[in-house]
Amino acid sequence: MLYIVGTPIGNLGDITYRAIDILKLVDVIFAEDTRIARKLLSHYGIVKKLISCNAITEYKRIDLLLSYLSSGSNVAFVSDAGTPCLSDPGSLLVDAAFKNGYKICPIPGISSFNTVISVNPFRDKVIVFEGFLSNKGIKRLKRIEELYHRGDAFILLESSHRILKLLSEISLVDLNANVLVGREMTKLYEEYKVGKPLELKKYFEEHNKDKGEFTILVSRKSKN
Q: What keywords tag this UniProt record (predicted)?
């Protein structure tokens, strides 16, 4: 059996009881980053064999995964944080397991997506998860325009290096776009701010809070 296990995005206490039970049960864990996985396992007193499996090496791990599954082993995959296959590796392993007739079991958990929409004040019925945009300026702006003019809310992920640039780019598409920003979600200094793109850019600049990891929800709806 291949288990796809959701893990915390910051606060280690957000893992589910079921996820802990599965991580204790399996014979081996494929992990996007074994150092991060080892920290999580150590926190809960779990000792397991870990195999590195990131976006670059995932395709190289398929044969090894199938070897474990064919021998009857139970295998788990965990990404660095949150839900695998959602802006994270895992899809190639899942595809290989499906194609070769092995059972797959998702162990639901937290993600940046369900965390930020739980505090979305805009009451959107349809929300598109885009994740990280291209690093190339023209492609980034074009994609933001495409997403915005579809009319549905959408979620972006961004690093501290480009959050101010991203808010400026959103303002180029619509100065009056409604934006929710989650910074360092579930962590010690987590923060949520709602406003127009340039208002938020000014806030993060002036308060020196353009650090950490950001999840951005953009909506055409108002709060009223």
A: Cytoplasm, Methyltransferase, rRNA processing, S-adenosyl-L-methionine, Transferase
